[in-house]
Design brief:
VC0802-like; Rossmann fold; 14 strands
Amino acid sequence: MSSTLSLFESADFLATTARGAESYLFDELTTLGAQNLELVPGGVTFSGSLELATRACLWLRTATKVLLRIGLAEPKNEDELYEVVRAMNLAQWFDADHTVAVWAHVNDEVFRNSHYVSLKIKDAIVDDTRDRTGRRQDVDTQDPDLAVVAHVLQGVARFYLNLNGESLNRRGYRVRQGQAPLRESLAATLLAFAGWSGGRPLHDPMCGSGTLAIEAALIATNRAPGLERTFGCERWPAFDPEWRALLGKLRDEARDGQTAVNTQILASDIDPKSVANTRTNLAVAGLSDAVEVSEADARDVRALEPAGLIVCNPPYGERMGDDAEVIALHEDLSRVVRGFSGHELAFISTTRALKRGVHLKPDAKLEVFNGKLRCQLAKYSIR
C-alpha cells in the first residue's frame, strides 16, 4: 500500500450502531475475528487490520459506521488541538486532490462547540496539505472523499476516518419507502434480538417498505449486506491496487457463499402502496423469489407452519399520532397471535404501546433509539 499502514497491520477502530444495540454489534465483530473489543455508548471499539475492517464494512448488519482511529490526544485548548492534528501523520491519508470534511462530537469542559472544533481540525488538515504540496484540498460537506470524525470527550480527543462513507444501513435496495421507515441496521438488530437466523418461518404483517423481510432474506441467503454498495475508503488516496484487489476478493467470496432460502418468509400490509414498495425493493435487492408478498390486514394474520416468528414494526411516533389507535393495533395483533402455539412474537415500538397494547409477558425487552425516537424491542413466546 502507498500508506504507511499496511492492510494487515493492527490498528484501532470504532464501529457505531443504534444506542442499545451495542451487544449485537459486539457479537458480530467477535464472529469476524476482531480483538480487544469494548462496549461504548452507541458502539464498540476494537483492534484489527484494515483487511478485517474492510470485511466488517461488507458484513456487519447492525452497524452504521466503521471508523479507523488515526489519532489520540489530550489537548488543553484550541491551539493545542490544532497542533496535535498537525503532528499526526496526515501525509499517509490526505492530499490536495481529494476533498475532505470534518464532523466533531464534543462533551467536554473546554471544547463545547462542535462546529468550532470541526473548523480547527479542518484548518490543521488543509494547512498541512498546503505546506506539503503547495495546494489546499477542497472541503465538501455533502460528499467528501475523506470524512473525518472527531470525538472530544472528557478531555480526550480521538480522531477517525470513516471507512464506509455513506451509512452502512444504506444497503442500496430501499428505493421506495413510506413515512419514517425503519433503519435497515435496526431491523437487523430486531431480528438478532428475536434470535432469528433463517431456520424457521417468518412473517411481517405490517411490512411497510419491506425492510424487515428483506433483512431476513439477506440473513437466510447468507448475503453480505454491503455486497451491492461501494465504500468511502474506495475514494481514498491510500486505496491502492493491493487494497482494491483485497476488496474484490472479499466480494467474490461473499457472492460464492450465498445460499438459497430454505424457509418461508412472508411480508404483508393492508396498504396497497406499501405492498408495491416492498415488491419494488425486493426486486432491486434481487430477492423477489425469497419473500412472499401479499396485501392483507395484520389482524387476519395466520399461524405459520411450522411455528415461527411474527415480527413487526407497527406505526407509531411520527407515522401515527393517535395514541388510542396505536394501542388498539397492538392489542388486535397480539390477541390473534396469542392463539399460535409455539410461535414467537417480536416488536419494535414505543414502551407505552407495548405495555398497554400487548397483554403478554415478554421474554426479553431492550431499549433502543430509532434515530432520535426512543423505542423498545420486545419478544414474546406463545405457549
